[in-house]
Amino acid sequence: MGTTGLINTGWPTRAQFLANPTPPVGTDISGWYGIYCNGRIENLSLFKNKLIGSIPNEIGQLKSLKQLNFGNDYPGPQNLNNILSGIIPDSIIKLTDLIFLNLAWNEIGGNLPSNIDALSKLQYLNIAQNNLIGEIPNALYNLKELKSLNLSRNKLTGNISGNIGNLIEIVSLNLMSNKLTGIIPNELKSCKKIEELYLFQNQLNGTIPEIFY
Q: Which of 155, 175, 187, 191 would disulfide-bridge 162, Cβ 3.0–4.6 Å?
């Protein structure tokens, strides 16, 4: 993963990084743009910062991370966007303190991690507008702290499991513009805190539970 340097205060240049990928022992990175430290790195936010490449597997070494933001927004100046590709690295499940994860509006493909429930503290998950494929893993429905889930505008297939009723804290749920099929599960009625629900532009059947009317 690299950057063309939109905002890179403190970060090494590409030439410096290639010459020495590992900062010398004792390097103070607390002043680097997008990094918040409290003894260890807790927040890595390079939102809309012209990142390119893939997310390195070494991301899993940042085990104190609470917020990870490599996303973009829409609408907005597209020339500032990150353009991350590749897949979500398996090591991301080692970030067990993670509360906020935003990878939206990139070009990330592959499947959602099958053991994503290892991120048991996660409250905000946004991987909208990428190239995700496969089914929504059942493990995702075990994220009982989740308040906002946005997987819209991907290529996800399969059904929405009745286990979605486990997401009792969910306030915003957006699965629009995928290739989801089957019946809209009645178990959605257990998600009583939902204020925003987007399921259109799929191939779903059935009706929304009456509790949302």
A: 187
10 Å CB burial of residue 68 (0-12, 13-18, 19+) is buried
Taking CA atoms, 75 is separated from 72, 125, 138, 149, 201, in Å, by 9, 19, 32, 19, 20
Q: Which two tokens stand for residue 61?
A: 């070494």
Element containing residue 15 per DSSP (H, E): helix 14-19
Looking at residue 151, its amino acid is L
Express each pLDDT in 109-134 by its tens digit: 999 999 999 999 999 999 999 999 99
Q: What is the pLDDT of residues 131-183, one digit of tens each?
A: 999 999 999 999 999 999 999 999 999 999 999 999 999 999 999 999 999 99
Give every CB contact of residue 118 below 8 A, 6+ residues apart in sequence.
93, 94, 96
CA 49, CA 34: separation in Å to the nearest integer? 10
Residue spans of beta strands (DSSP E) within 93-177? 100-102, 109-110, 124-126, 131-135, 148-150, 155-158, 172-174
Q: How far is 178 from 113, CA to CA, in rounded Å?
A: 18
d(CA 127, CA 149): 8
SS3 at position 68: strand
Task: Please state, as a whole number, how many other Cβ atoms lie within 10 Å of the Cβ of residue 115.
Answer: 12
Give the whole-angstrom CA distance, residue 198 versus residue 178: 11
